Amino acid sequence: MPLCGADAGTAPADDADVYEAEQAQRLGGAEIVEDEDASGGKAVLLYAKEADGVAFHIHVPRDGAYDLTVVGKGTMEDRFDYIFLDGMQLSEVHFPFEQYAAQLMPKTPLRAGEHEIRLHVRRGNICLDTLTVTPTDPIPESLYDVTPTLTNPKATEETKELYSLLHELYGHYTLSGQHSPNGFHGEEMEAIHDVTGEYPAILSMDIRDYAESRTRFGTEGRTADYALKFHEAGGIVSFCWHWNAPAQTILHEGTDAGDQAWWIGYREQYSFFNILRVMHGEEPDLKRALDMDIQAVAAQLKHLEEEGVPVLWRPLHEASGGWFWWGADGPDAFKQLWMYLYKTLTEVYKCNNLIWVCTCLDPEWYPGDDYVDILGDDIYTLPRQYAPQIGRFLALDSCSPSGRMLALTETGVIPDMEQSFRANVRWSWFCGWEYDYIVKDGAYSSEYTEEDMLKKIYGSDIVINLDDLKNIRNNREKNE
Fold this sequence. Notes:
CATH superfamily of the largest domain: Glycosidases
Distance between the termini: 61 Å
Structural class: alpha/beta
Number of domains: 2
Helix content: 10-25%
Oligomer: single chain
Number of helices: 11
Number of strands: 23
Strand content: 25-35%
CATH class of the largest domain: Alpha Beta
């Protein structure tokens, strides 16, 4: 039986099982509809109600990895929704408008026996056609065979040592990390310590408040000082950069023409900045503004280099989402900007303490192996959903032709690392995000990651925390 929405001529493998949506359990107001484009001429229509859904009850004959493929379409516009496996959020799926398409959830580990695959509508309407379950091979161990060298041949010894350590641990352990704007003893770090008795091995912060596009409005950067203190305590420092577009391109918020939205000037909707015009020399004033920001940030990175601090450097993140100005003009513009930033920081300002981390899910947006050391993904699931994000992990891996270490560079819910390792999803590190994801009303919040799960994760033998990191480095020094 052909899979609707797959490429012409594509059919399930001989050992695949195909389940028709109209024969599955319908939930809420889901109803069977006639549709000549659907398999068997019928599909199930799900409305934009959370109670609406379809539950497929499947049987797998043996333990192993399985490709799960659902076929559906959006009936009003493109739709994004969630698939659950035995009550756990398995994946997010994208159904295009008025055209059936196959969405793959690859290499999903399943025990022999009965399982429930459920799709619930959150932002419908959707026509659902089929689910196909196909035995496959698990994620290969070879995925963790990645380059042991940095892209910058002039990297400092401290930076090479950090990359070597990450390379040594990759595939065997995951380092814990947390974004905490106020540093080592910020409320996020202390909340984790209060619950688990551990501090994360990686401290993530933002370098934005040093750039001229924000200091002109009165910001004062402090995160470089916090970074030095965390490094001195034995930890690893990571920086992202919510980079404001040049002030002269920032729009006004709301109806008050005097209320310029400079504090969120990194958001696409508050700027009319055009990367390609600037990169092609058509806007020299804006180019100078960009260069002033880079110079200001470079000064802080260079200061950290002089203090012996290597940095997991994660600028221009989430570009393919389109919500930041550096992604609003498409992949070619983004890649030009990434390469320009790389060359300016490494060649002009000689910042040789940077490990370049690109948050990239789409190969079309990948700047290339010459400009990226580590690939990262930012994943936000529904609350208390701890399952490994296998599809996202493998999609991220596909971005690099020669292979790169993969990191979960932002996450709202901290995944169950032991469950992830069983699926052979072995992130180099995870980094919990701030706000209510971790702290609410001055104390740890269990809204997204329950306390018991946080204790389990930070207490796991496969998770490297700050004290573990210090012990590993001490042992390495003794053995040298």
